[in-house]
Specification:
mainly alpha
């Protein structure tokens, strides 16, 4: 695999991550494997670089006060715990079952977001949403993170379905991801499967794209527009999972 491709992959993933709060792992990891990178090394690099990008993203959204610890803290705690459960289930459940459930969740949820009317009432900073719902909101993507290796789209989808304003959802989800991905990065680092060159080149390409994507979302786009874009992206990701891994298209 040619190293000069890595910053370009980081740019694509970073732009999506800054724009809609997901897309780093779900975009870059399949492309790295397609380019014949060692899967374990690729996962280690993606998870570690994702930690750096989530740190930058959480700072960007936090500085604009688009963040809530009431959302991020229970979401992160549940995501980390559920990821351990998902990892255990990955050896018990057929991979097709996990992928089919994730794909269906993303497809149906993505459509509902894309079709959500601009007049839809949201909960300011999640203040009117019960905390246990944020625990569930972290457990769902955490489980898929452990069982399948990708939970970001499911995390953002769940928070938006809980009526958290999309910009606050992005800032809070990036912070929750920072904590959960950081824990995973430590594990991969201890195992010695983090390639510093691959990780660094992904980050180099991702930083300017993250700044650009987050600027567009924070300064330029209305919540309803971002939700439609995110819903369409989530729908496409879910459809792709079902088409490739279940229907074998």
């Amino acid at each position: 695999m040619l190293p000069h491709v890595l910053p370009a992959l980081g740019f694509v993933g970073g732009f999506l991550l800054g724009l809609v709060g997901f897309g780093w792992g779900s975009t870059i990891l399949p492309l790295l494997i397609l380019l014949e990178a060692d899967p374990k090394v690729a996962i280690g690099a993606v998870v570690t670089s994702n930690t750096v990008m989530c740190l930058l993203g959480s700072l960007r959204y936090g500085n604009s006060k688009l963040f809530s610890w009431r959302v991020a803290a229970p979401t992160a705690a549940a995501a980390i715990s559920a990821a351990l459960v998902g990892t255990a289930f990955s050896t018990l459940l057929p991979g097709k079952v996990v992928v089919a459930v994730l794909g269906l969740y993303l497809t149906v949820g993505g459509v509902s977001l894309a079709l959500r009317p601009p007049s839809f009432k949201r909960s300011p900073d999640g203040a009117t949403v019960a905390l246990w719902k944020f625990v569930a909101g972290g457990a769902i993507p955490g489980f898929f993170e452990g069982a399948y290796g990708s939970g970001g789209p499911a995390g953002m989808l769940t928070l938006m379905m809980l009526r958290v304003p999309v910009k606050v959802a992005i800032g809070s989800w990036l912070t929750a991801s920072l904590l959960s991905q950081g824990a995973a990065s430590v594990v991969y680092g201890v195992q010695g499967i983090v390639d510093p060159v691959m990780t660094g080149l992904l980050v180099v390409g991702g930083i300017p794209a993250m700044i650009l994507g987050s600027h567009i979302t924070i300064k330029r786009l209305a919540d309803s527009t971002i939700e439609r874009v995110a819903g369409l992206a989530i729908f496409l990701l879910g459809s792709r999972l079902i088409a490739i891994n279940v229907l074998h298209f």
